[in-house]
Design a protein that fits this description.
The chain has 659 residues and is mostly helical. It is built from 27 helices and no strands.
Length: 659
């Protein structure tokens, strides 16, 4: 019996550690943005859920009505995503979007099915905070000590983006890390060493957040942290504020003064020198934050001795909140807040760019919309054309290419809610809203009682994500969004012994559920295998090894036949080998799998030209689908002739439009 209990504890520990481990894995694989990583993560989570269904005595003990409602909404959203291929004629896009939604559904279910206890939720928060800190420490190392951890700086080098490859996503991850660590430092129900370590972690997370220069992440995190303080009212709040705020402010001010770290050459000699100074300051801030928190343990004990009679407690809390609100309102009015907000709104609407000067730090005080208004308008335009079902999952990129007014390339709509409205219509948005709003409502409702600080921290982290994803593409960054659904699943789980499916399912029921899990895991497994072969194919194509590229393309096609990219790789190699008719056939097959993709039509034009077949209709089609595509415009110009020999020369001189 003792051995069985040890196995149970080990299994539970592994389950609680899984979200943090996946967060780290996805973070160091481009944030999980690209096809392979989220598919692998979905397979891992499906495997964990399968083991639980088979081995656990009561595998669904934590699944209550709220959890079931969220799971049902996400499941229907995944199905609707797959169905959208029928009206978008882009089955591969719908399939890959399905894999991402499936990952979120399985992550939520895995945690929601475990009976909720305070220790389990507390350990999940600790492990997720640890995972976030590990990722942010790696990110900081690449900027403060680039000689130790060199990274590529090809895109926006002034903004810290490694390892997620997107600065706003990294900023949001650091922002949620600040919230979770602040809670761990302020909750007197945490072990003393946890409070000290969490306090010491806050300055590093704050500096990481600053170096991303992410205005949205800073704003969403600040709002959520304030909500946590109001709802959670942790007993160690004063001590944590004294330990974390001044030390974090000192570290951020030092980082702000190191202007080379946010310059165009943040890894040059001058930046390395500044990075050493900032690293030293951060080290001092870290030690100071932990030491202050340790020496204020006596203050914590004294605060615990203050008892407010239970009958007066609601009035005391309401009075404190009301007084704080009145003070904030008076200060806002006295300092000219309404006028300031009006001016900032005007600047947001009328100023397209957020980086108007050579100093990247200036974007933090510039409310320019950075083109988001145009991004949102394209999503709304797609919605207005097909309001019920939208243009199809994953098709925002195609809508942007056809409707954009600038040469700037965009793949995602920079707002989950508007992009969902444009791609999956009212049905998709309604299903998403049911899931997200149910999660937030239940988490908020649980932010009271003896465990209010813990539940308030979970709610605040979820709220930060929900706010930020309204102005960015966090949904497409699983390293960030898996955090939301893991916390949501654990936060919504029914307390042990209260609600949930407490009965042990029969063997037949377990078998049926297990078969269902295996079936839904087939799609991400095929996607992961396809992407593995496709990566090899593209690498071989660029190296000029067409025999290996074609073999890899055929393997990628066999793993997931609906994808057009394997046919691209095969077709380009066939064109290089002067197998003109085969190359044209391959690109035509690719076009049929994604007919609104200008890149595929451009590829078809190139292989037709290389085969001395008329490339002009395909080139003109590519330009109509993407009027700002420089290569398509150049191809239309170069192919403006009736000479087949010139078609071939021009086609072989143009660059391949590879992904």
């Amino acid at each position: 019996m003792a051995r069985v209990r040890r196995y149970d504890r080990a299994a539970m520990a592994a389950l609680l550690a899984l979200p943090g481990a996946l967060l780290v894995y996805l973070s160091f694989n481009g944030g999980g943005y690209f096809v392979g990583a989220p598919a692998v993560a979905a397979i891992v989570v499906a495997g964990a859920l399968l083991i639980r269904v088979i081995a656990a005595e009561r595998p669904f003990a934590g699944l209550n009505r709220a959890g079931a409602a969220v799971a049902a909404a996400l499941a229907l959203l995944a199905v609707w995503t797959l169905l959208s291929a029928s009206w978008s004629d882009a089955p591969a896009r719908a399939t890959l979007e399905f894999d991402r939604t499936l990952l979120y559904l399985l992550t939520f279910l895995l945690l929601a099915c475990v009976a909720g206890t305070r220790p389990r939720l507390a350990w999940l928060v600790r492990l997720l905070a640890l995972a976030i800190f590990a990722v942010c420490t790696a990110a900081l190392t690449t900027r403060l000590a680039p000689e130790l951890w060199p990274t590529s700086l090809t895109v926006r080098p002034e903004r810290l983006r490694y390892p997620l490859t997107y600065w706003n996503a990294l900023g949001m991850l650091a922002s949620i890390g600040v919230i979770l660590c602040f809670h761990l430092a302020a909750s007197l129900r945490q072990a003393p060493w946890v409070r000290v370590v969490a306090s010491a972690a806050v300055p590093a997370l704050a500096v990481t957040l600053y170096l991303t220069l992410s205005r949205g992440a800073i704003a969403a995190g600040a709002v959520a942290l304030l909500v946590y303080i109001v709802l959670g009212r942790p007993s160690g709040l004063i001590s944590t504020l004294a330990a974390a705020v001044p030390t974090s402010a000192f570290a951020v001010v030092m980082a702000y003064g190191a202007e080379q770290l946010t310059g165009t050459d943040p890894t040059g000699p001058a930046a390395i020198s500044e990075g050493q100074d900032v690293a030293l300051a951060l080290g001092l801030a870290t030690v100071a934050a932990g030491a202050i928190r340790f020496f204020l343990f006596r203050l914590d004990r004294r605060l615990l001795q203050i008892r407010i009679p239970a009958a007066r407690r609601p009035a005391f809390v309401a009075g404190g909140v009301l007084a704080s609100g009145l003070i904030a309102l008076v200060a806002f009015l006295a300092l000219g807040g309404p006028g300031y907000m009006d001016r900032q709104y005007e600047r947001f609407v009328k100023t397209d760019a957020a980086d108007e000067t050579s100093d990247a730090r200036s974007r933090l005080t510039n409310p320019g919309n950075k083109g988001r208004l145009e991004h949102w308008e394209v999503a709304l335009a797609a919605f207005r054309e097909t309001p019920l079902q939208g243009s199809g999952a994953g098709t925002y990129q195609l809508e942007w290419a056809q409707r954009r007014q600038t040469e700037f390339n965009v793949v995602d709509g920079h707002s989950l809610y508007l992009e969902m409205l444009g791609e999956l219509g009212l049905v998709g948005l309604a299903l998403l809203a049911v899931a997200v709003l149910t999660i937030l409502a239940v988490l908020a409702a649980r932010s009271r009682g003896p465990n209010r600080s813990l539940h308030a921290a979970v709610f605040a982290a979820a709220l930060a994500w929900a706010l930020h994803t309204g102005v960015d593409w966090d949904w497409e960054v699983p390293a960030l969004t898996i955090l939301f659904f893991a916390l949501a699943g654990a936060g919504l789980a029914a307390p042990e012994g209260e609600g949930g499916l407490r009965i042990a399912p029969s063997r037949i029921a377990r078998a049926l559920v297990a078969v269902g899990i295996v079936i839904v895991a087939i799609t991400p497994a095929r996607a992961a295998l396809s992407q593995h072969h496709l990566n090899r194919g593209v690498e071989a194509l660029r190296a000029g090894d067409c025999a290996r590229a074609i073999d890899a393309g055929l393997a990628a096609r066999a793993a997931l036949p609906v994808r057009p990219e394997p046919w691209e790789v095969i077709g380009y190699c066939e064109a290089r080998l002067r197998k003109g008719s085969l190359a044209v056939d391959s690109l035509e097959r690719a076009v049929r799998r994604d007919p609104e993709n200008s890149q595929l039509h451009l590829g078809l034009a190139l292989v037709r030209g290389a085969a001395r077949l008329d490339p002009r209709p395909a080139a003109r089609r590519a330009l109509r689908l993407n009027p700002f595509d420089v290569i398509a415009r150049d191809a239309v110009r170069r192919f403006r002739t009736d000479d087949p020999a010139r078609w071939e020369r021009e086609a072989r001189s143009l660059p391949l439009p590879l992904y």
